[in-house]
Every structure is written in structure tokens, then in C-alpha cells.
Amino acid sequence: MKTKAPFAILRMMLILVVLAALMAGFWACSLADAETVAQGAYEIRMLGKADEALTLLSEHASANPDDAPVQYELARTYSYMATGDMAQMENYFNNAKTAIEKAVALAPDNLSYRFFDGRVTFVLSYMALQTDYENAKTHIALVVAAFEKVLEVDPNCGEAMLHLVELNGGLPPEIWSDTAKAEAYTIKLEELDPVLGGKARAIMLPDDADLIAFWKEIVEKNPGNAGALEALGKTYLREGQDDGIAHIEQAFALDAGLSESIMDVARYFTFKARSDTTQTKAAIAAGDAMIEKYLATEPPVPLKAYALGLQARFKYFVGEKEEGEAVQNEAETMDPHFSRASAVPFADLFVPPGEAAHSHRYLFQPF
């Protein structure tokens, strides 16, 4: 009997090895299926059919709740549809939060999932602040914690650090403040990248600092840096100065990936049209020209529809009702769920699953 024991053990070990191999194959197939579904849903959404993408993802997630890629794409789809339906926006974002929390729980070390959780957490917290300002610290704490989790996955994630600088160093102290952490992140960002570091330092400067001069110096020290030129241009725009447009166009000429800044210039002209009625028609015409320039870059369908929606508002603004209705109908036919929000939608909604956008937009600034 003793001589048979090793053979029994070997046989059991062989069975376990075979089972492990089969299970590994099963999970590999499951992951591949999940990634295929997520990619397919993304491609459908990029064609302007977010509702069909949502159906595909929801059905798969119902049968396969542990597929992290599908949960992530489900969160992105809900988030995208949220700004296209203001009446249901909060419900959509709550659904997005549920989905991204599942994705994070299934794959806690996935940087894209963690970062998108921060995005969704911020939107929900910001919405809560509108009606529950007394508990502002509680709401902001959730956002801070979400982006700190990103840094646990990647301590050098510049976009997450910059959000934390804005949260810890850029808010009124009665809401939230941790200037020591903000300064530490700023120093690290300055070591990592001149533009992200400059944006962080600009947040930390006194309120009366000359930010235009600050960014001019960074541009001079980093000639040909498109991001620095873009930041200088947007600083001018936030100061209400058209001089920033030339810098943004120069940045775009250097880096075609900065096309969303062209839409920011268009949005700038909407603010200008409202603030100075003597310049309304000129501002709207300038903004419309910027939209045409953006459309010439051939953006994906959802962003093209968003741009057309803004163009329709321009036409309504100057009394061109019929023209506005025609452009609005074109946008809705192209993508009925396009964003009706003023801000350009976050870039990480439009990169393929598994890719990172590496795009920074301020949480509390218009552009």
C-alpha cells in the first residue's frame, strides 16, 4: 500500500494541473470575450449609437457580472449619455458609479478604471454640492480619496496629482485645504513635466499673481512646447483677452491632438457674447469660425455632434432660428445622445478601451 501512495499523489497533482490549465483557459477566454464586447460597444458608441452600446453592455454584464472591461465600458457609456439628457443626468451618473466601482473591485490595479472612478466621483460630488453645501467637506473628501487611490496604482500619474493640487490647494479653506500635500504634489510635478508642473504651481500662486507673465516665462524656457503655448493661451482667455487665441492656434499647429482647445476658444466667444452685447454678433461669428476649424479635424461622431450642437446655439443666439434648427437636427440625427453641456466632454470618454487619454482639464475652471 505504501508503494501506491506516491502514484496516487502524482495522479492527484496531474488532475489539479489539468484543472488549473483548463481554468486558466476559461478565464483567458472570458477576458477575451469581455474585451471584445467592450471594444464592440465602444465602436458602436463612436458611431453615434450610445443606446445600442448600452443595450449590448447591459445584457452582457447581466449574464457576466464579473467582466471588468465591460463594467468599465458600461460606466463610460452611462457617463457619456448623462450630459445628453439633463433630466436623467444624475441617474446616469449613479449607474456609471455602480459600474465603475464593480470594475475597480474586479481589477483594483487598473489605472484607467481608477482614474475614471475619480472622474465619476467628482461629478457626483459636485452635483451634491449644489444642494448640500453644508457637507462640502464630506463630498470633496470622496473625490480626494478617489484620486489618491489612482496614485497608489501609479505614483507618477501627473493628471491625478494635478487634480489633487487643485482640490487641496485651490479651494476655499472652509471647503477643503491641505496646502502641504498640494505643495508636495506641485514639487513632484515640476520635476516630472514643465506643463503639468506649471499648472500646479499656477494654482498655488497668490490670487494677485501675474499668471500671464508666469506662463510666458515657461514658454520661453520650453520653446516649441505645445502644451505650454496652450496653457498660456487659455490663461489669456480666462483673463478675457483675445490674445490667447493666437497662442492656442500655434499650439494646435504643433500638436493636432490639441484640437479640443479650438472648441474651448469657441466656448470663450459664447462667454464674450453674453458679457458684451455690443460685440455679440462679432463674437458669435468668431466662435462659429472656430467650430468650423474644429470640424475640419474630422472628430469622432459624438464630438462632431457636440460641436454642431454648440453651433446651433450660436445661430439661435443671433436670431437665426431656421438655420439653428437645421444644424440642431443634423446633430441629433448624427448622435441623439450628444452632450448638451457647455464644457467639452472629457477626452477619456473617446479613447479605445485599454488606452489612456493623458489629457488634463481643470475640475473647477471653464477651460
What does the model show?
- The chain has about 375 residues and is mostly helical.
- It folds into four domains: about 70 residues, Serine Threonine Protein Phosphatase 5, Tetratricopeptide repeat (Alpha Horseshoe); about 100 residues, Serine Threonine Protein Phosphatase 5, Tetratricopeptide repeat; about 45 residues, no CATH class; about 90 residues, no CATH class.
- It has 16 helices and no strands.
- The N terminus is likely disordered.
Key attributes of the depicted protein:
16 helices; Serine Threonine Protein Phosphatase 5, Tetratricopeptide repeat; 4 domains; disordered N terminus; 72% helix; 367 residues; mainly alpha
Overall body shape: globular
Low-confidence runs (pLDDT<50, min 5 residues)? 1-29
Strand content: under 5%
Structure summary, number of beta strands:
0
Number of helices: 16
**Helical residue percent band:** over 70%
Quote the average pLDDT: 91
> If you consult CATH, what is the topology of the largest domain?
Serine Threonine Protein Phosphatase 5, Tetratricopeptide repeat
Largest sheet descriptor: none
Which class do the helix and strand fractions yield? Answer: mainly alpha
Q: Determine and state the CATH class of the largest domain.
A: Mainly Alpha
User: Domains counted in the coordinates: how many?
Assistant: 4
- Elements, N to C (H/E): HHHHHHHHHHHHHHHH
Distance between the termini: 79 Å
- The assigned CATH architecture of the largest domain is Alpha Horseshoe
Radius of gyration: 24 Å
